[in-house]
User: Fold these one by one.
Assistant:
Number 1:
Amino acid sequence: MAIFTKRRLAVGALLLFAAGGLSLSGAWTTTGARAKGARLERMQASPQWRDGRFRNALARHDGPYMKMMKEWFFGGSPDAEPSTALSVQGRSKADFDAPPQSGLRITWLGHSTFLVEIDGHNILVDPVWGERTSPLTWVGPKRFYDPPLPMDALPRVDAVVISHDHYDHLDYPSIIALSAKGVPFYVPLGIGAHLEFWGVPADRIHEHDWWQESLLGDLTLAAVPARHFSGRSMVMADQDQTLWAGWVLKTEAHRVFYSGDTAMFPGFEEIGQRHGPFDVALIETGAYDPLWADVHLGPEQALVAAQMVGAKLYMPVHWGCFNLALHSWTEPIERVVAAAPRMGVPIAVPRPGESVEPSNPPQVARWWPETRWTPAGEKLVMSSGLSEELAARVRRAHEVADVHAGGLDAVVPVAAAE
Ligand SMILES: [Zn+2]
Ligand SMILES: [Zn+2]
């Protein structure tokens, strides 16, 4: 049945007010700035820049626009947002006083925000403390829970890493707060224009093309390819004017891969060959749909990607914090949990705020409630343009994962796990 939810009303309002919103100084500021001068010249010299914008190696094909609009406004799961308060693990600064035993600890702060403590370096990835993923403070997707760790309770941050300029990854109030701490920012090409416009000193901005690396002491930060898009303007005036990327963080002892936002593409193999194998891969798994399968992976393709890069442990991110798609809010994790053991991929599913040492991950326990969701067999999410071999692999992942309940025997109720 068609449901005109509060979310869709909010999205409608957002679109209606988009043009007007641009004239509001707040929205004008958060939208950011376009690159010019030497920065633009460097972008235009990138192999990724063709005919006035950044491009994916594999072209992006979306579903029919009218169908997308119809689904967006009248379709979608009635369980796209939690109906009760979530069980989040609140954290404090003292929690990070003792370094990780193994040297590597990931703390998931919700969606794609996480702290990586790696052999003495503290790296904050895609920091989003803002209430909404929107240029406006009063409308747009709102977070399901407060940040598990307050911004002023963060331990020392040595660097901030950004994957792309979408609002759920590049959050204006978080950048302002972190800039005040004096940290350096590692970002894909073009995003420096936003940061400088917001007052980040130019010498603290490190802009990377795909495959470019920086050194921070003995830590390598490498931008790697992704298949996605970019833009912050509500009237789409800046589509693909900044680059999108995944990131590798590695020392002699540990290797971490973060996918950023991405669809499936063969480049995952090359990422694995050049930088893998990884102690942990944080790969996006939410906000997918068959209508936009060339911008997000979905759960089964995320697991295939984890295998392609050579992940010893897969940790799903980009789910369970903002309502950005049509699926039920727990569907991404239910499908990961159904598919992972059948594909032989070890997973960690921390609750928001929880820390994971990849060498000794916690048992997967159900901290999220049981809601209605659509299993893999009823909704194939497969990116376009894949080789026959890769497409067959993605199809197989859907087939083995086509179970609706009891996906993972190891998923015990939280009460039993504690
Ligand atoms: Zn995105
Ligand atoms: Zn995103």
Number 2:
Amino acid sequence: MPRTVPEVHTDLVLEPRDVHFDWTGLPLHWIPDEPFATHTINVLHLLLPEGERWFVEVFKEALPLVRDEQLREEVLGFVGQEAIHAEAHQQVLDHLLAQGLDPRPYVRQIAWLFQRVLGPKPRLTARRRRENVIERVAFVAAIEHFTAFLGNWALNSPGLDRAGADPTMLDLLRWHGAEEVEHRSVAFDLLVHLDPGYLRRVRGMLLGGPLLVHLWVRGVRFLLAADPSLDGRVQPSWKAAWHVARRGMLPDPVQSLRSGIRYLKPGYHPTQEGSSAQALSYLAGSPAARAAAGAH
Ligand SMILES: [Fe+2]
Ligand SMILES: [Fe+2]
């Protein structure tokens, strides 16, 4: 099946960077005195290890369906990058646990969602299995739109620096964000390759967008309640989110919603969002990415 979008990324070579972060000195509130902003961003660590491992499984299932050598290479590069992202965020979860914030009850629910509800269905016929894989690729493509949006935000978030956010956590967020911007087209191009239909794309977003918001809100509530230093004193609210976003520590909720709507435009392509040049420039200077490059 021919690809129906312009070959904007024919020279894209995705390199998994085997980064490592030292969390020993990370304070529980790594944005000083900002537990709400800290835990709203910490939801990433709750969702991504299971979520990105699931992306890897879906893409491995989709690989035999790919009939384009360049796209195949991109899918393999994407899988390599996402596998490292999942492990990097897993290490933050382990650090939270060591600090007395037990993330496991929430993570168990996320694992159930990705492994059971959205996992492979072994008893399907070959035709139905193909349908099921493409449906899940559409879901990944919708989520990848948001990871690129968030990555682009992380690369352009001086508010976090102004607030004195921990530099190692900022490097994790921006290294990951830069790789999300770098590979932002892969899931979408894979979806178009397997099914160029508009309906499937829309369905992926209509399911994925609200689910992501729901999981995020639940995640913030969970972390604020589980944080042993807060004793339930900080209550999450949309008003608090607006306030923190205005000070540049979170993405603007309206911009985030608008971004989700842009995905539904018939002429949408991920390259319209974010800048590959900026992402690569960050990766060239990222302490973790530089250390990973030096280790090879
Ligand atoms: Fe990722
Ligand atoms: Fe990604």
Number 3:
Amino acid sequence: MGYKKFLKKIEGDKIGYESATPDIVSNFLCEDIIKRLMDNAKDNIKDNINISSDIGVIDCCCGIGNVSIALSKFFNFVVAVDKDKERLKIAERNAKIYNCKNIKFIHSDIFSINIKDLKEKYNLNVAFADPQRRIIKDGKIIRTNNLTETSPNTINLINFITPEIPNMCVLTSSNAEVNLPCEKEYVSWQGRKGKRETLLVLYFGNLKKCEKSAVVLPSKDKICKETNFEKVECEKSEKPLKYIYEIKDCVVKAELQNELGILTKCKIFNEKFLTSENEIKSNFFENRFEVLGICTQKNLIENLKKINARKVVIRGKIMPEEHKKMKNEIERKLDGGKEKIHIFINGKKILIGRNIDLKI
Ligand SMILES: C[S@@+](CC[C@H](N)C(=O)[O-])C[C@H]1O[C@@H](n2cnc3c(N)ncnc32)[C@H](O)[C@@H]1O
């Protein structure tokens, strides 16, 4: 089945719709927050919370309400705040469509709210926030990676909420620089038209389980960086072995290549690839390639002809204009072949590979 941002019918204004959290992410986050709370309850007998019936959650900037609706299925009560009046009305309509009776909508700037009073009134134990990362800069709409440029300002929001509600989950850009006392969880999934998407989720308070983690959706496979254990070093290989495996962005951004190498019994080839003599499957691999050879620019065509190549996918550090020119030049010389072949440019050396998951 193709990718759908929303699995249910949902209304929205253009910006509200575009900046809403996709269902694949919001459903995973809600489940994950509950799991994290349940782990705490198990660890701490004093923390005698009945997860489903006692806990309230605040969605600090709810937009068109997609996450609030998902949260309402897992939590006893949801307080959903947004400073945009029209968008909040849309969120209310969306909640009505899904018959969510346990959401209280508040039209306000989050910083004008008395969090202490609200926390007592609705038994708020968790806070969620997905600040707006699309901002207008010099008259243009851009996506910011800077936590102080989001709306609301992510740093100010965390400082405002966590003294009262320490258990907080915040969505940020996967390219954001974050130096805060939280778990950094990178979540990757395949979006519209197969586009690779990655978000950084920050977990504070009792929601924090480790320093860094990486998750792939929809499988929900997770790798965590365990700081308490002695680090086992994954072997490295300067040469590619029989197969190379492209590592998912969430693992690369979380710098968990070592952990993935050990988990999959592969060697580290470089920052973005593992390698092995064996064919291995993992949800943390973006693509899997069989290595067909290594050559130079000079004997590339000759080698490509030998393996019946017709189309090439060029990878590596290469400028877009040069990329197009090089692809056209190569393919013009390969008119007899049939196969789609990947070539990886690394300085003067070119690695030739076949994607073993794609059928032509
Ligand atoms: C990325 S959207 C949230 C999307 C939401 N998670 C969803 O799924 O629909 C961010 C929202 O933050 C709201 N916002 C920005 N600054 C705010 C503030 N100071 N207080 C409350 N809401 C704010 C914006 O109006 C916008 O609707």
Number 4:
Amino acid sequence: MNPLDTLIELSSQMELEHAEEARGGRVAPSGSEGRIETKPACFTPKEKRAAFTHSAQLPNGKNIVLLKTLLTSACERDCYYCPFRAGRDFRRATFKPQEFAELFMKMNQAKMADGIFLSSGIAAGGANTQNRIIDTAEILRKRMGFRGYMHLKIMPGAEKGQVERMMQLADRVSINLEAPNTERLAKLAPHKMFIEELLRPLKWVEEIRRSQPAYKFWNGKYPSTVTQFVAGGSDESDLELLTTTNWLMKNVRLTRAYYSAFFPIRDTPLENKSAVDPLREHRLYQASFLLRDYGFDLEEMPFLQNGNLPLPTDPKLAWAQMNLKEKPLEINKAEKRDLLRVPGIGPKGAEAILRARRSSKLRDLTALRKLGIVVARAAPFLLLDGRRPASQLAMF
Ligand code: SF4
């Protein structure tokens, strides 16, 4: 198989991995203004269309084109949900580290990909597989001088020294927990050990960050960490997923969790299990951002009796309907932590309100809208200088 065909084989299922702040599927390369086939030299138009890249936004807000792929789709594990599980009948493909590094650099020079998300099936043990990922990253960074974005996957079974080496090469490292606890993981991946193989590496990353100075890491910065859950794959509740997410954000400085709504894959043990509504994935993201950025506690999430979030309503709105509808917030007196609880007011909006209040009172919705507040969402929960603004809403 030539390297490009290998890449196409290996990338074909990578939409299941929510690696960065992805915004849709395949994209034209950066700088091409959407015309993949007009740019440049070393790839044919057919090759350019086939290359599997994704639009992604980095934590600093920069948009890049990310190549998401595996080093190999061969895997000795048998996770129930996974298209790459051992014994599933399909054509496997494998890159050698040098081969992948050369192909990626070719794509990078052709402006087809700015960064890499690199994972792998497990072959000959987690530590051996991890070495191949490290070898690839070292070739790219040390021999080929690649200075762009790199997200490397930690393999179940990796050793602490390998995790440290990955952190010296990558902008982001991650390992997928897949399920929120040991019992749930047993329903999804019976041969993965939740504490020893999945949670421990995330703890190591934080230990290493705390014990070593930043200059020892790539570009003088500590790499961020993320994880991913298969939402609904083990019949777990949103409460279980968010409890683990919250613990990880507080204790090992997880940047964020990704939730991938379960979707059955043909010819796997879970092929007859129903797909999970993608809206559940969206509600989990909203709730996790309330925990991370808006000062909400887990206990404040509007969980239903079954431990799930209501699907029809955004969790912040559900909270406000229960807590602010009868006791609206006076916008001219509220503290930042309370402003953040109002639907339609985000961190930037809350700051803008505090700044504007220093010069004059906020008396109408027009003034709020100028500050970037989504007034149609916020108005039912606010008082403007002692008055409910409901009568002004028709103007918006
Ligand atoms: S270890 Fe990873 S690649 Fe292998 S079966 Fe499990 S989820 Fe799939």
